[in-house]
Sequence to fold (336 residues):
Amino acid sequence: MFTYTLRRLLFAIPTLLIISFVIFALLDLAPNDPTGDLPLTIPPEVREQIRASLGLEQPFFIRYLYWLQQFFINEPLNILERLTGWQFGDGHRMRVLSWATRSPVVDLIVQRLPQTLWVVGLAYLFGILIAIPIGVISAYKQYSIFDQIGTFVSMVGYSVPTFFTGVLLIVVFSSWLQWFPSVYDTNLEVTDFSSFLAQMRQMVLPVAVLSLYNASQITRFVRASMLDNLHQDYVRTARAKGVRENAVLLVHVLRNSLIPVVTVIALGVPTIFSGAIITEQIFRVNGLGQLLIVAVQGADIPLVQTLTFIFAVLIVLFNLIADVLYGILDPRIRYE
Fold:
């Protein structure tokens, strides 16, 4: 297992380099100009000076190498300096800067990350905790009332878009009942119990919208995988040996059924860090999804490049984690 993991990590290096080049090239070739939003009265020579200050007068390949150095070397060194208090070099190294704010891109991402993790992360966790037991019970009691209700709710939750569900919850619970706020207050600081309750109240609606969507998707996979394994020969053998039904269901069937479900869950984890763009827009959550929208609208190419590449890194990483979990869940799978 260790050899396989190490080999996959080494293979991920050229994969990520190719992905980084494709992302950088596509966004660099996009018809976006950082001076496009400036007033037309600005002289052309001033526009060229602005472009030169942003490094756009350099050839494409040179700018790509600079971006690699900034992302893979300078930014990690800066993070190590903050965590350890040590200084590596003179400390005046180039960093990936936002065209719009002239602030380091990584600092902008770190500022928005807690809001995204609070809302999207909790929603994904609740979705998994809800989906697995519902999927197991629905498969075990196939065609029962519980199964029919669960299948119907999961189908509706997965089919109905989150912008409709979000607006519906705002109308019912914010406008009519006035139980929860419709706008997420990003500036709220949790300092006492009352502010903690306020934080929980404003998280209820966005977390509920995303939890319903995530749970509906995962429930369908859990139910289908459980049904596929419930009628296998090893299940009949375990029952013939007198193994208790709970042990057959939870130890034998569920463990094998989770193998395909792990892929769905692992590949969904990067969406936690990318943020739920539509839901964050509806509830005004100042997270990474909203940051990406603002960056795209403002043609802030360095910020879009960095965010997109971070999402690609997370997808490659959690693909590896899913493969490793296969070997843990199913002893028959060997990578050596």
Observations:
- Residues 112-329 form a domain with the MetI-like fold fold (CATH 1.10.3720.10).
- The chain is about 75% helix and 0% strand.
- The mean pLDDT is 79.
- The two ends are 6 Å apart (CA to CA).
